[in-house]
User: Fold this.
Amino acid sequence: MAYEIDAREIPEDWPYGYLPLGAKKPAQSPSDIYTGWTLDTIKFDLNEGLSKWAYQKTKDAPLTIGKETKDFEKLFKNYPNAQKDPFVTMGETLSSSTYWHGKLLNQWANDWVKLYSDKNKNFMTSNMEDSGTLTALQRLEHAGLVKTNRVMVLRTVSNYTMPPEGQSASWSTTAPYPEQGIPAFETAYTVGNIVVDEIVKEWTEMKLNIPSAE
Assistant:
């Protein structure tokens, strides 16, 4: 949820045309976002101990991609993490109903995550579902039907949110997903299934006590 001004009309000293609800300009520090009205559906903090438990269970999961994906990754030669084999990690994800794209909006995404969490956090993946899902679960918790401290979020990566050097944002926005995004689907099963199996196996204990890791 945000205000937006078309990029052709933003003031010259603004880095982008998005600004928080209630703000007069793009926010530069956490204190800037609480000067006006806002919503309780902008940010969701997960149970850190539970998230780390899931990470510990899955961090060594065997992940694979095909030649087409590897060739596409080579375009991002100036980004060391893009050159690595697939791996499991932890980080922040940002939801949007707009399929935004490009280097400048990546800057907005990273600024936005830092504003609503803390300066040590970094935007890692985009999504279009999680804030809606978490909003629904939050309201179900208010009705006493679920416990949001048991919520986990798994994202798998199928494409990039900005182009490699030498390519335009418009090219990258509509570039085909390598292997039609199938490695991301397979990874979601591989990683998610490890956690689900563990929960089912240990449900007698876990229904009473939420697992946690330091």
Summary: The helical segments are 48-58, 67-73, 103-116, 130-142, 169-173, 182-201, 203-206.
